[in-house]
Amino acid sequence: MKKIQIINGPNLNLLGKREPTVYGSASFESYLDELRARYPQCEIAYYQSNIEGEMINKIHEVGFDYDGIIMNAGAYTHTSIALHDAIKAVNTPVVEVHISNVHARESFRHVSMISAACKGVILGFGLDSYRLALEALI
Ligand code: DQA
């Protein structure tokens, strides 16, 4: 059984309510139910935090044990050297995901501080970005 950790960053607890034209109207919890049903061969753990340090603690906690981390760092993607360093510090491969196509949005979203530390990046496919990342890790 593969152990996969999903980490969602700031404001992603509001998926379904937050800017639905950009991020869709489904809650992450309902999407997660579908994902777990579709991939019974994976144990999919989920963690969300609005706090950068808590995300770093979660990376440290699972990053020597789990088979993969799928991370949507939200706006910390564009600012956090500390998340970059945390990803580099662990063994578990991290796939960076984004729901929206950040390159089709404001220029401040075009830069990612974490991409270079990640195994790969999937973005722009709505919530399906998470499933595509899971496929990549499997
Ligand atoms: C996001 C894109 C980020 O620019 C933004 O700050 C988010 C969500 C996405 O999934 O499209 O919070 O990571």
Q: What features would you describe in this structure?
A:
- The chain has 138 residues and is of the alpha/beta class.
- It has a single domain, classed as Dehydroquinase, class II (Rossmann fold, 3-Layer(aba) Sandwich), CATH 3.40.50.9100.
- 33% of the residues lie in helices and 20% in strands.
- The protein contains 5 helices and 5 strands.
- A 5-stranded parallel sheet has the order 2-1-3-4-5, sandwiched between helices.
- α4 (81-89) links the parallel β3 and β4 (94-98).
- It starts with a strand and ends with a helix.
- The model has no long low-confidence stretch (mean pLDDT 97).
- The chain binds 1,3,4-trihydroxy-5-OXO-cyclohexanecarboxylic acid.
- The site of 1,3,4-trihydroxy-5-OXO-cyclohexanecarboxylic acid has 10 residues, from loops.
- Its EC number is 4.2.1.10.
- Pathway: Metabolic intermediate biosynthesis; chorismate biosynthesis; chorismate from D-erythrose 4-phosphate and phosphoenolpyruvate: step 3/7.
- It comes from Parabacteroides gordonii MS-1 = DSM 23371.
- This is 3-dehydroquinate dehydratase.
